[in-house]
Structures are given as structure tokens and as C-alpha cells.
């Protein structure tokens, strides 16, 4: 188990710093101090298994944190409040960035996974495996669908949440920079402002131009993303 976790530590750092496809498996194995060249393959099977193991090791924290925040929404009667629902989606990411270097590596890797053209929306849901976040997303879509086509609501929410992950991935890079030249706005302010921006974007009126574009698009999958 110690060997497996050490390989994960090394791979997490290298993937975050150089991209998932950057370091070779041999380089990861070597930097992890494994003399047996098949050690990585034995524990993870290959690059894909290694990435999935990295994502999985951080999953439980998000599940637990999401459940705690959701319980608070229930107690305070805010399950239909857009900003509160958006905050439940965004706040755990911000808190994770503040926790430490390994957590920031994860956020950077997750942003790359989301950006990959090989990652389908269904796979994102499976990899997150967070019932609370999934339920929150459905609530947001239902609220948004009162004022816009459901396909557009899904597209807006998907785009905004992915943008948030990338925003925090960028922040993670800055947090770990040795001599950053830019002054960092305190993370709580960044988070609150981002929640404001996303809430406004999700509920912005649909323009006649957008409705017209939807009506003339022959393939509805274009709107679904």
C-alpha cells in the first residue's frame, strides 16, 4: 500500500506540473524510486488507471463536504435559492485549493480531464460520483428551465461549472508559484465573486438572438454540448 500511495504522490505532482500526457510512465516509476520497472503497471495497469486512481483518492472528501453543505441548505430552507445551490457546487473546490499542495494538484488534473475532447459528459458524472452535487445540478437546471429551453439550461450550467474548475486550477498554479508577480486576491473574495458571477450567468435572460439560433439549429445535440 505504501508503494502504491508513493507512486500516486509522484504521478499527481508530475501530471499537475507537466500535463497528464507529459511524463512517461518510466519517468514516474523512476522518480518514485521503483527499481522494478513493472511496479506502476502492476498497481495501476497504465496511464489511464493512474489518472483514475488519482481522481478516486480525492473523491471522498468532496462527497463528505457536499453532504455537509447540502444538510445546511435543507435546514435553512435554501434548496430553491440559485446562489446557494451554486455555492454548494463551487465552495468545496475553493476550500480544497486552500488545503494543501496535493489538493491543488488534484484540481489542476481535474481541470485537464474536463478539458479533454475524449471526456464525455456521462463520464464526468461517473468520475465525480457525488450524489449531492448531481442533485444540486438537477435542481439548478429545473429552476433555469422555467425561463429557458432545458437544453440551454444544461449547456449554461455545464459551461459555468467547468469554467469554475479551470478558474481554481489557475489559482492553484498561482498558490504554488515560487515568486509570483501578481498580487493574489484573498480566496474567500475570489470564491464569493465567482459564485455571484455564475449565479448571474445562469439566470440571465435568453436573448432573441439565442432563441433564434436554437430554432434554426437542425441538430439539437449542438445545444446540449
Detailed description of the structure:
By secondary structure, the chain is an all-alpha fold. It has twelve helices and no strands. It starts with a helix and ends with a helix.
Task: Please outline what is shown here.
The chain is mostly helical and 225 residues long. 76% of the residues lie in helices and 0% in strands.
Feature tags:
225 residues, mainly alpha, Arc Repressor Mutant, subunit A, Tetracycline Repressor, domain 2, 2 domains, disordered C terminus
The H-and-E topology, N to C, reads as: HHHHHHHHHHHH
Average pLDDT works out at 89
Using the 3D structure, state the CATH architecture of the largest domain: Orthogonal Bundle
Radius of gyration of CA atoms, rounded to a whole number: 19 Å
Largest sheet: none
CATH class of the largest domain: Mainly Alpha
What portion of the residues fall into strands of 2 or more residues?
Answer: under 5%
Q: What does the overall shape look like? A: globular
What's the β-strand tally?
0
Q: What is the structural class? A: mainly alpha
Count of spatially separate domains = 2
Query: Could you please say which CATH topology of the largest domain applies here?
Result: Tetracycline Repressor, domain 2
Helix content: over 70%
SSE topology:
Elements: H1 2-18, H2 25-31, H3 39-44, H4 47-76, H5 82-99, H6 101-115, H7 121-128, H8 131-144, H9 150-176, H10 187-203, H11 208-216, H12 221-224
Helix pairs in contact: 1-6, 4-5, 4-6, 5-6, 5-8, 5-9, 5-10, 6-9, 8-9, 9-10
Amino acid at each position: 500500500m505504501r508503494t502504491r500511495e508513493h507512486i500516486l504522490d509522484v504521478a499527481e505532482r508530475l501530471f499537475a506540473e507537466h500535463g497528464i500526457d507529459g511524463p512517461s510512465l518510466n519517468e514516474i516509476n523512476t522518480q518514485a524510486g521503483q527499481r522494478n520497472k513493472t511496479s506502476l503497471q502492476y498497481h495501476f495497469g497504465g496511464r489511464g488507471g493512474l489518472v483514475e486512481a488519482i481522481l478516486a483518492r480525492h473523491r471522498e472528501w468532496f462527497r463528505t463536504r457536499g453532504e455537509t453543505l447540502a444538510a445546511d441548505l435543507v435546514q435553512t430552507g435554501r434548496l430553491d435559492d440559485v446562489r446557494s445551490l451554486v455555492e454548494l457546487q463551487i465552495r468545496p473546490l475553493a476550500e480544497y485549493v486552500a488545503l494543501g499542495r496535493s489538493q491543488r494538484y488534484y484540481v489542476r488534473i481535474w481541470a485537464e480531464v474536463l478539458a479533454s475532447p475524449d471526456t464525455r459528459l456521462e463520464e464526468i458524472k461517473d468520475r465525480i460520483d457525488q450524489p449531492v452535487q448531481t442533485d444540486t445540478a438537477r435542481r439548478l437546471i429545473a429552476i433555469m428551465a422555467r425561463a429557458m429551453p432545458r437544453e440551454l439550461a444544461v449547456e449554461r450550467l455545464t459551461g459555468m461549472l467547468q469554467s469554475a474548475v479551470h478558474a481554481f486550477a489557475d489559482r492553484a498554479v498561482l498558490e504554488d508559484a515560487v515568486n509570483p508577480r501578481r498580487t493574489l486576491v484573498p480566496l474567500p473574495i475570489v470564491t464569493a465573486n465567482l459564485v455571484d458571477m455564475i449565479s448571474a450567468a445562469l439566470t440571465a435572460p435568453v436573448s432573441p438572438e439565442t432563441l433564434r439560433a436554437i430554432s434554426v439549429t437542425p441538430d439539437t445535440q449542438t445545444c446540449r454540448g
